[in-house]
From TrEMBL:
Name of the gene: lptD
Domain of life: Bacteria
GO CC, alphabetical: cell outer membrane; transporter complex
Protein name: LPS-assembly protein LptD
Listed InterPro entries: LipoPS_assembly_LptD (IPR020889), LptD (IPR050218), LptD_C (IPR007543)
Family indicated by similarity: Belongs to the LptD family.
Organism, as annotated: Algicella marina
Length: 707
């Protein structure tokens, strides 16, 4: 320690360049000082710390007269900006800001490595390198050629601007030269945002041929950027994709889209789409969300693999959710891409509004609620409907000493309708009053056998409601009622307000759950709905028609680590004939994921919305398998059992390591409409660590063999 302190004091007194700045620290196994003090020679494990920079070397010689440092390797210079310079020999000034380096290698942000025959350090800002090879791949004696590399005559690294400039560069893949670039500029690794070209992606399709996307990213200040992507295909189609993003103090917007500059598929037409969205935090706890989704024609999105959606929704929402109240305001429009749907008959929501508030009130730990809602539907060709509704309700519950849980509800709702442009309704103004009362009894039983805990819960619910209305009411928002384990004990199984269940009914069911101490559990729900009067509001496919509903049974199993199974089915009440059902099995682990499922829906001629569809049976399978440390397979398969044909077949293969990720995919999609034919598609993407992307931590770093 005395030797180190003495050297530090001597350096501060004798080195003019070092004495003017921060303190200099010199650590070495041996320090020799010439007789006149002009030359200092440090040898052994030498470390010099000065102005945030650290120089490590086997030997360092400082010439006071020339104010120069000579470092003999192996040399390691840390500049303090995630930049490490390795070299065999270096001649530097005393500030370590200028000099020549032999056998240089730069390591940037622990990712990109740049090796050179020689180099120079200029002004403490630039690292100039000659005859360079750059890569972020691990290189070993048994693997001397990296997966990718850039060979260049000259490279300049600007530490202040955080840019790397290549001159006369070749890009090699697996040792083979692929592309010559007379000049190339890339951001230094670790830079989050920088203007420049991104990696291209390649694709192909039976529809547009072969295609390449050439994205270019532009920084527009600290809070905004845009990506412009020409999409060029072999069928003489050129699209321009754009994605603009901006963050504000209270929110953000994202404006995306694509338009054809030239279209080889539909010559003479301007085709494209927009997909804009945003979110803002407003005053008093309100949130604003919006989306604008439009396309020029029914086929564009599927032709160029942007989306499989057959309906696009645009909306503006203002919402606030608090513990005792909520408010929702919405304006919405829809664009149908389905065959045979008339755009003029699709309603615009202008607007919808709903608010509700609850208070603690009354016995049985009661809660009193009140609400108001408005729905205005406007069509360019067809019926317009304005609904104003509101009401109040009270809910309470109590648990008896025997363990029986009692719950009661009372609800009164009033609606007023204005109906226009529909000759099928005699009354232009219609009112409705809907009172509802209900009670629910639950009696859970628990049995602990030591090996597991079993909970059995019988449930009985009695509900009565009636509708007093002055005329027929159009059903706009309640088209798809269904019976499942989540709606078995609902007061109203219609999804909206236009249609309401009426009459006396009893909802009877039982829940069973098994809790295993090893962490897995299984549950089973079964039940049925009984009515005093059958009515005609429900279709056969809903499972709710008649005096007695279909018998519902649902089961689930959750087995750690990562296995889940769910199944549900409806059976006819008289014959227990299978009506509809589904099952799903999912398993997730580090190396392997799989999800498979089956859905059966019988044809229902009474259903207002689905009567045109035949019986449907579909099987699906998706999987991911990491079959080697650096290789991963993905697959997806959907099959129509009713039509005995595949709907979708898709496979992907990805290779990834510390320096690259290469993904290839191929798929075949069955035509679901007359707009787009059946097509086969493929895609190829390449991400290189250090060239605009960071390493993916999911991929392991390759190691070299120990000799």
């Amino acid at each position: 320690m005395r030797t180190i302190l003495a050297v530090m004091i001597w350096l501060a007194a004798t080195l003019p360049s070092w004495a003017q700045g921060e303190e200099v620290t010199l650590l070495a196994d041996r320090v020799d000082i010439s007789g006149n003090g002009d030359v200092i020679t440090a040898s052994g494990a030498v470390t010099v710390r000065y102005q945030g920079q650290v120089l490590e070397a086997r030997r360092i010689i400082y010439d006071r007269g020339a104010d120069r440092l000579r470092a003999e390797g192996p040399i390691r210079l840390l500049t303090g900006d995630n930049v490490i310079v390795l070299a065999d020999l270096a001649e530097l000034d005393a500030d370590m800001e200028n000099g020549l380096v032999m056998g240089a290698r730069l390591i940037l942000d622990e990712q990109l490595q740049i090796a050179a025959e020689s180099g120079e350090r200029i002004g403490g800002r630039y690292n100039g390198l000659d005859r360079v090879v750059a890569s972020s791949c691990v290189v070993c004696a048994e693997r001397p050629t990296p997966l990718w590399r850039i060979r260049a005559r000259r490279v300049v690294h600007d530490e202040v601007a955080e840019r790397i400039y290549f001159r006369d560069a070749w890009f090699d893949l697996a040792g083979y030269p692929i592309l010559y670039l007379p000049a190339l500029r890339i951001p230094a690794p670790g830079v989050e945002r920088a203007t420049g070209a991104l990696m291209p992606t390649f694709s192909g399709s039976d529809i547009y041929g072969y295609g390449v996307k050439l994205p270019y990213y532009v920084v527009l200040g600290d809070h905004a950027d845009v990506t412009l992507t020409p999409f060029i295909t072999s069928e003489r189609t050129i699209l321009l994709e754009s994605e603009y993003r901006q963050n504000f103090r209270s929110g953000n917007i994202e404006l995306s889209g694509a338009f054809s500059l030239t279209d080889g598929l539909e010559p003479g037409e301007i085709r494209g789409f927009v997909a804009n969205r945003g979110h803002f935090d407003l005053a008093y706890g309100y949130d604003l969300d919006f989306e604008l989704n439009l396309v020029t024609d029914d086929a564009f999105l599927q032709e160029f693999n942007y989306s499989d959606d057959d309906r696009l929704t645009s909306f503006l929402d203002v919402t606030r959710y608090r513990a005792s109240d909520y408010t929702e305001f919405r304006i919405a429009g829809y664009q149908s891409l389905r065959d045979g749907e008339d755009a003029g008959e699709i309603p615009l929501v202008l607007p919808s509004f709903e608010t509700r508030k609850v208070w603690d009130a009354g016995p049985l730990d009661g809660r009193l609620g009140a609400g108001l809602d408005v729905m205005n539907l406007v069509r360019t060709d067809g019926r317009d409907v304005l609904r104003l509704g509101g009401g109040g309700d009270w809910r309470g519950s109590h648990t008896f000493d025997t363990g029986i849980q009692f719950a009661a509800v009372g609800d009164l709702r009033f609606d007023a309708y204005h109906i226009s442009d529909d000759a099928g309704f005699d009354e232009e103004f219609v009112t409705r009053t809907l009172p509802t009362v209900g009670v629910t009894l639950r009696w859970p039983w628990a049995l602990n056998t030591g090996a597991a805990t079993h909970v059995i819960e019988p449930i009985a619910q009695l509900v009565y409601s009636d509708s007093f209305q002055s005329g027929d009411i159009p059903n706009e928002d309640s088209l798809l009622p269904e019976l499942d384990e989540t709606s078995l004990f609902s007061l109203n199984r219609f999804p909206g307000q236009d249609a309401q269940e009426t009459g006396s009914r009893a909802n009877i069911g039982i829940n069973y759950t098994r809790y295993d101490p090893n962490g897995w559990e299984a549950s089973l729900t079964a039940g049925q709905v009984f009515r005093e009067e059958a009515g005609d509001r429900f279709s056969v496919g809903s499972g709710l028609t008649g005096l007695t509903s279909d018998f519902i049974i649902a089961a689930s199993v959750d087995l750690p680590p990562g296995l889940e199974m769910n199944a549900s089915a409806l059976f006819a009440p008289d014959s227990l004939t299978f009506r509809q059902g589904s099952f799903a099995i999912a398993y997730e682990s580090v190396k392997f994921d799989v999800e498979t499922g089956y859905v059966f829906l019988a044809a229902d001629p009474q259903d207002q919305t689905m009567s045109l569809l035949p019986e449907r049976q579909e099987y699906r399978l998706s999987t991911r398998y990491r079959f080697a440390p650096h290789w991963e397979f993905t697959g997806e398969f959907r099959y129509d059992l009713a039509e005995t044909r595949s709907i979708l077949r898709k496979a992907g293969l990805t290779y990834g390591n510390e320096c690259a990720e290469i993904a290839f995919s191929v798929s075949r999609r069955l035509a679901t409409s007359g707009n787009v034919p059946t097509s086969t598609n493929f895609g190829l993407s390449l991400n290189l660590t250090g060239l605009g992307s960071r390493s993916n931590p999911e991929w392991p770093t390759r190691s070299c063999a120990v000799r």
